[in-house]
Give the backbone structure.
Amino acid sequence: MSLIELHLENYALLRQASLEFGEGLNVLTGESGSGKSLSMEALRWCLGGRAGTAISADGASGRTRVAATFRDIPERAARLADDFGIPENDGLITIARQGGTGKASIRINGAVASARTLSAIAGDLVEIATQGESGRLSDSFYQRELLDWFCGAAGLRREMAELYLQKTALERTIARITEDQTKAVEVRAAAVAVQRQLAGLELSEERQEQLRAELAELSAATRIRLAAGQVRQAIGGADEQPGARDLVSALLPVLHQLPMGEQVASLTAAIDSLLVQLDGVLLEARLLAEGSAGNPERLAEVEDELSRMAAAVRRFGSLEAARQEQEEAERLLADAASAADLTSLTMQLHEVTGKCLAHALRLHSVRLAASCDLEQQVTALLCELGIPEASFLVTCTLKEGASGIPSDGRSILVNPDGADQVQFLFSSAREMAPLPLSAVASGGELSRVALALRVLISGETESATLVLDEVDTGIGGETAIRMGEVLASLGKSRQIITITHRAEIAARADTHLLVRRVVSAAGTEGTIESITGQERVLEVARLLSGSLTAAARKRAVELLESSVDGDIRPRPAASRVG
């Protein structure tokens, strides 16, 4: 993967400039103040870094715009771009950032992107190690990743991630089943209530009409029965209360005592006739009452069933809706599917949790052992790169927390990467206590730490472009030669971009960019161009002596014709001063 072009518009001195980079080692050289550092500052800003003072404000010069184009994109960066909806562009990614006094706009392959999207993708494209922009190198997660690459723990990391995935899957399953069981109790209670309300009901329009017709018949029969009973009671009497027949019959003895004249005889005959009629009416009333279909118990049952149907309609909206609820309640209550065996799952979770802890502790031991080797090798290489009193330390401690896994009186926090908190510490002098990289290292020191780390893990990871600034600060002679060898050799496995003032480093470059400061009537402007051949010889000679003497030119040719030879890993520690 490589950065193939960086285009700048209105970035301080760089009004219109295009930097075309190649594979391997790319160097920028030029006079002081020509704009070398501006180009790297522009790259940092384009990739989401803080805006520098060089960004021009809105005005006659126009808005500042920087665009960086990459090819052979790492798999993870390509996947992220796809996840964020970035359009495909023949395997290229172009990041463009534009801004002035207002908020900067970001586009990736022409699509508007957020700062979060830019940060996620750019992190896999470029690794920048410059003063105030340590980026990934100061991130503890990335430091742990570097340590794992150094000790070859990729396999252990994958196994750790698989175990942790099993653990979290079991935890989710147990939580889901527990929640489902709680919900099932509530659902069952609701189903029981529905079943109780609708038990025994045939919920249909036909049944409702049948009941209504039966109710009408039963109601009529009951009224007839009641009326017949009242007639019987009125004529025949009841409960020692005389009826009409008794009262009429009581007149006959009185009439029989009277002289039987024509009128009395006529009245007696009329009474006898009336009694016969009353007996006939009484018989008809009795037969009607006894033969009526009226049934008070059945009437109550029909009225109750119709009342429950009406209540169901009020609750569920219709008889059909009530019937569906009735069927669903019966289904839920009849469902005999057994719940998952929580006891078995809990035992599995306990076993996997134990394996997670054991694997995290094993990974911790591997990292801890590798930390000592990494410390020694980085420190030795930093001595060769011009920091003779460098001290590089790696701390690797187990993270603890209340929600962790109990272990020997501690609670270890385990995640897919293990349980380690890794931090790189550095000091450039013996009297200085080692502190985190971002807190103590200058731009040149940080660049050399990044270079040393990348030398030691070269070829282990997807190679993002490595940008180093001030990497040659304060070095000379053999150290500059050694650094040139290191950079050139590392450039065989990844793209390196660095600003240098040393001819020994510039001569090793695969691509040499020259930055010039041009003064004209229109103002001062910086230009950048790739140089080769005689023009490059002259620039290397200038770096050697500051003037283009014959000796400087001859030495420049010798440097350019030389090649990297031998292993670039640290030489014996005896080279360390003191």
User: Anything to note?
Assistant: Confidence is low (pLDDT under 50) at residues 56-61, 336-340, 564-578. The longest strand covers residues 2-11.
